[in-house]
Amino acid sequence: MEIIYPDLYYDTKDWEEGKFREELASELVNIDKDVKLKDVDIGMGADFPSVLVAIFKNIDWEHLLVTGLVGVFFLGEKINKNIDAWKEIITRFKLAISKFHPARIDEKGALLLVLDKFGVFSEQEKETDVSIQIIPFTPVLEGEATLEKQPNVLYIVTVNIPNKVYVVGIKSNTKIVFINEYSMEWLEF
User: Fold this and answer.
1) Which has more confidence, 89 or 153?
2) pLDDT per residue as tens digits for the range 126-149
3) Using CA atoms, how far apart are residues 109 and 5, in angstroms rounded to an integer?
4) Domain range for 18
5) DSSP H helical segments within 99-164, as ranges?
6) Looking at residue 122, what is its pLDDT?
7) Tens of pLDDT, residues 27-49
8) DSSP state letters, 30-97
9) Cβ–Cβ < 8 Å for 55, 96
10) Which residues contact 25 (CB under 8 A, 6 or more apart)?
11) Pairing between strand 129-136 and 153-161?
12) Count of domains in the chain?
């Protein structure tokens, strides 16, 4: 999972190179001991110094997606395995973004925010299908990491729970821009 945090000290009298990265690292190591941080600049013309964080790299996302949130991206099957693992990841992710609010999140972060918002891990919501579409916007011409090269994205997350479907638009800046709710009743169609 990739998260980009803006350098909170940039353009202030307290700015020192690497100061924010070190502060962020000391906080995030409590959430994921294998966290990796890198200074980046995702500005489009003007500087936007930030820190790219690679977190939860030790999680086998593909396996978890296939066995836990069964096939979120590919298979579209039901959420019914590894629910505790998903709850733990969401809890740790929310800790990672609560103190230092990110400038950008990747699709895994967007997915976690939407799943948390709709409480899909409650007992009555186990029969849930989820899918995500990634719509990229203006790319940054430099960078190595996926989110560093493509920080401006709209994620369309569809959550299909019994009797309802939610279609959620969430920007990579964590802002939910729309939520559409649809009844599954045939009369609605």
Assistant:
1) 153
2) 567 788 899 998 776 677 778 888
3) 13
4) 2-188
5) 107-118, 146-149
6) 58
7) 999 888 889 999 888 777 777 88
8) TT-TT-EEEEEE--SSS--EEEEEE--TTS-HHHHHHHTBTTTTTT---B-S-HHHHHHHHHHHHHHH
9) yes
10) 35, 37
11) antiparallel
12) 1
**Mutual orientation of helices 107-118 and 83-98 as an angle, nearest 10°?**
110
Q: Tokens at residue 185, please?
A: 């009743």
Token readout for 36 is 């990796």
Whether residue 112 contacts residue 90, with contact meaning beta carbons closer than 8 Å, is answered with yes
Q: Is 138 in a helix, a strand, or coil? A: coil
The length of the chain, given as a count of residues: 189
60-106 per-position pLDDT tens digit: 666 555 444 433 333 333 344 466 777 788 888 998 898 889 999 99
CA angle 21, 99, 115 (to 5 degrees): 115
- CB-based burial of residue 121 (10 Å sphere; 0-12 exposed, 13-18 middle, 19+ buried)? middle
Find tokens 């019914």 and name the residue.
80
CB 166 within 8 A of CB 118: yes
Can you tell me which residue has the tokens 């600049």?
41
